[in-house]
Design goal:
Number of domains: 2
Structural class: alpha/beta
Oligomer: single chain
Distance between the termini: 48 Å
Radius of gyration: 19 Å
Helix content: 10-25%
Order of helices and strands: EEEEEEHEHEHHHEEEE
Strand content: 25-35%
């Protein structure tokens, strides 16, 4: 029989437009080709069992600093472990460096090394004295891309502060809309990129710096116990994380041109 789909994800609870529904996903040519009940397993080259799992659209991190201890390659890999399939890197130009030059350098590094799709936003840093110049070289931010989903799921959903649909809208749908990437990204519907996370709500995890994938020497959430964790992450139909292992290669990420309402 002709194989209609590269993969079918069967039996999962799909967090999609309007809520959470039991449905199968048929994936073809890197896109969601079909969302329906009871897709035929013999129509796919591979069947992935989603029973008991939430199927989430891939997440966004819209402000990433790949300039301190983690490179674009590092950030994309550690983000993928946490279910992030699209990163927007912050390319700020230090004194003596033009913004256009900095942005182009970030784009080229992303093309060559990123595991996941990426975009760039930038700003000028105009240091006026030695103190400002020293500040511009100080690390800003914290290693949190890998932990944002399990931590917010634990604190938000498990502890009753918000529902899963609202959480995923905040982490996926709304960033995609803000940056003009919806519905290519940020939603699981027919025609969208097959960027998705298979999330096990019963998988327990204790966050430890030693098991995280950032080069940072600490975690903000050391010892924090979470119930719920990604087990598989896919981008454009390609499995990039499975069973805690990175399956993708550097340079497979695509550069995304964003568009906001002010553009």
């Amino acid at each position: 029989m002709e194989k209609i789909y590269q993969q079918i994800i069967k039996g999962g609870m799909v967090v999609g437009p309007g809520g959470i529904n039991n449905a199968d996903l048929g994936i073809r040519d890197g896109k969601i080709a079909r969302v329906a009940s009871n897709l035929r397993s013999d129509e796919a080259r591979e069947v992935i069992d989603g029973t008991g799992m939430y199927i989430l659209p891939g997440l966004f991190d819209v402000h990433v600093h790949p300039v301190y201890v983690d490179s674009i390659a590092d950030c994309s890999a550690l983000g993928a472990h946490g279910g992030i399939t699209t990163m927007i890197h912050y390319a700020y130009s230090k004194p003596g460096t033009g913004l256009a030059e900095t942005v182009q350098r970030f784009i080229e590094e992303g093309w060559e090394t990123s595991h996941t799709d990426f975009a760039i936003h930038g700003a000028m840093f105009d240091a006026k004295n030695q103190i400002d110049d020293e500040f511009s070289n100080a690390p800003v931010g914290s290693p949190s891309s890998e932990t944002i989903l399990p931590v917010t799921y634990q604190r938000g959903v498990n502890e009753g502060r918000l529902d899963l649909y609202t959480l995923i809208r905040a982490l996926s749908e709304m960033p995609a809309k803000i940056f003009g990437l919806y519905p290519q990204k940020g939603v699981l519907q027919e025609g969208s990129d097959a960027d998705l996370v298979i999330f096990d709500p019963k998988k327990r995890e204790t966050i430890r710096q030693a098991t995280q994938h950032s080069n940072a020497p600490y975690s903000l959430y050391e010892g924090f116990e979470c119930l719920g964790s990604p087990t598989l992450v896919m981008q454009r139909g390609e499995i990039i994380i499975e069973g805690g292992e990175l399956k993708s290669k550097k340079g497979r990420g695509q550069f995304l041109r964003t568009k906001t309402s002010g553009d």
